[in-house]
Amino acid sequence: MAATASTASGTPPAAPPSEPAKPWYRQLYFWVLTAIVAGILTGWLRPSLGVALEPVGTTFVSAIKMLITPIVFLTIVAGIGGVDSLRRVGRVGLKSLLYFQAGTLVALAVGLLAVNLFQPGAGVHAHPGDLRLSGDAAQYVKDGEDQSWWHFLTDIVPSSAVGAFAEGNILQVIFFAVLFGVALKAVGPVGAPLVEGVNRLSAVVFKILHYVMLAAPVGAFGAMAYTIGKYGISTLTSLGRLIGLFYGTSLFFVVVVLGGVLALLRINIFRLLRHLREEFLIVLGTSSSESVLPRVMAKLEGLGVRRDIVGLTVPTGYSFNLDGSSLYLSLAAVYIAQATDTPLTLGQQLGLLAVMILTSKGSGGVTGAGFIALAATLSTVGTVPAAGIMLIFGIDKFMSECRALTNLAGNSVATLVVARWERVLDTARVNRVLRTGRPEPSNGPVDGGTSTAGKALAE
């Protein structure tokens, strides 16, 4: 049962006055889309220029990542500081992890089903002995072999609080932020001024993010030009069956699986995707879902999701709810087995799935993370030759874009599900915002609405 926000008189708050929408040519999504097309043309027609533009894309992503850890920390602390019970925080965290685990399992199963049904690797007949690891691929395999299946558990605790921020380790920042927020809440009135200070500081950091996002079209142009210039459009056709299957399976997962979940909440998946269109285009251009993490958090708050739920669910989902990465792992592992004529029984595939449930965790937001997780899976199981990743190394950049897009959709849906599970999701309000595209003002720190930080970003 969804909770309905109300004023003191018990009457639902009136929608904000209608503001004239920006012309389409002034919308961020239009300029990002234009930049992506220009980047593709530049990389295709002038490959050397496209490769030279790599610093343009990486600099933009670095500017975003500079702000991610402070935003995650401030949002979580403010969210915990605004709740009336620490028990609620623990309940939200537990429900998020349970949903994440279920989502990962479904994504892995969908990937296994698709790759067995269409068998894109059949007929390749690559001999494992002829495959030689080199360059970045060799380093990824080495990193994967060095990772234990339980590494994400031991890596949660940072060696120092400052180090977690400096290294940009979101999982460790979440751990420290939760401890800080709980302690801040536990000290009572003494911590109230700090909570207010955190809210004010959040507004400043989000305003900085607003300035950085003005360069999103430039960053998307540089990143896309580099990708096409470096790897070439011909790379897309050489393994077209696998690429097409991955994109098709991801689309099926988002529309049918995630769409079905939202349908139970009486929310239209296509309206949600349209609401996040700018974020999806930025992810498409930069191949990084991290580049839009703060914007997604602000937009979900604008839908009416409570701040503590957004603050805990979205950042944690970037490490534990990687639907796109899970699809990729199951597809890629079995594809390599098919391409190298390595027979896999049903039991061996289920064993792969069990290992991938663990290796898929904690791999978000790191360059080559999907490849490292794949190498860790193959090295742990041992039935599929790890050197087989060379077969798909050339197209991994194109696959990473789809992984990031699916991860973004999965985490957005997860946040709405957890809010409904907590019985604090006003479905009517969500649908109203999705129709109008205008976030509704908050009625208090627990309500969600549009936070001060969200307003700073939206201006």
From TrEMBL:
InterPro entries per the UniProt record, alphabetical: Na-dicarboxylate_symporter (IPR001991), Na-dicarboxylate_symporter_CS (IPR018107), Na:dicarbo_symporter_sf (IPR036458)
UniProt keywords, alphabetically: Membrane, Symport, Transmembrane, Transmembrane helix, Transport
Disordered: annotated segments: 435-459
Pfam families in UniProt: SDF
Keyword flag Signal: no
Main localization of the protein described in the UniProt heading: membrane
Keyword Membrane: yes
Cell compartments where the protein resides: Membrane
Transmembrane intervals: 28-46, 66-86, 98-118, 170-187, 208-229, 241-265, 371-395
SUPFAM superfamilies found in the cross-reference section: Proton glutamate symport protein
Membrane topology note: Multi-pass membrane protein
Protein name, per record: C4-dicarboxylate transporter DctA
Annotated source species: Streptomyces atriruber
